Amino acid sequence: MSYPLRSLLAATALMLLSPLVSAHTVWLESTDSANGYAVRFGGHAGVLEDFPPAKLEQVSAIDAAGEPVAVAREDLAAGVRLQTAEPASVLTLYFNNGIWSRLPDGRSENLPMDQVEGAESAVNAVKYHKYIARWDAQATQPQGQPFELLPLDAEAPAAGQPVRLKVLIDGQPAQGIALAFGEEGDDAVSDAEGVAVLIARSGVNRIWSGQRLAVADNPAYTQLSTEYSLVFHAQD
After folding, report:
1. What is the pTM of this model?
2. Where is the signal peptide (predicted)?
3. Number of domains observed in the structure of the chain
């Protein structure tokens, strides 16, 4: 699979290896219908937010053999529902939240900095998500996301037991990246090999991670923010 990744004309050193302030992520929740999913956005302080469906730019699903699974998409007034043609093992999303320019009074506008009079800074915010519906061989296979959390254990997680995750950036292990349950925090930090260990919780586990890079000589934005969420289930 391939995912869009905006190239940086000039990116300086990594600014943030800990969770982003007021983090917002995108993730899937299973619905009552067979093979059905609802796309969720938000999560900061437990608050869900509506979003323009056009911001969800890419949806993919694979089966236990790694073969593509067709996904039907229903764009609603303020969100998206998905339905896979057959049971999927792994689903992935790419969500482009656009550029948010910050004004001196603290307000933000969803426009490039050079289009907002008086803007002092701007963040280009992109979101990636992986939903592990069935813990089979595909759970430990990289999906080619520019930023990705990769489970390392073939055995399905059990509540109260450690889960090893490798942080990959452009396919390479990344050190010093924070991971947390839900939104924000630093429950674990990746080591020199990109590996972090968390203790699985009973039921749905939603793991956050991300980074923020400073961008130089770009009139549209001053930072690139990447946020990631991984969802899986752990049995008692």
Report:
1. 0.89
2. 1-23
3. 1
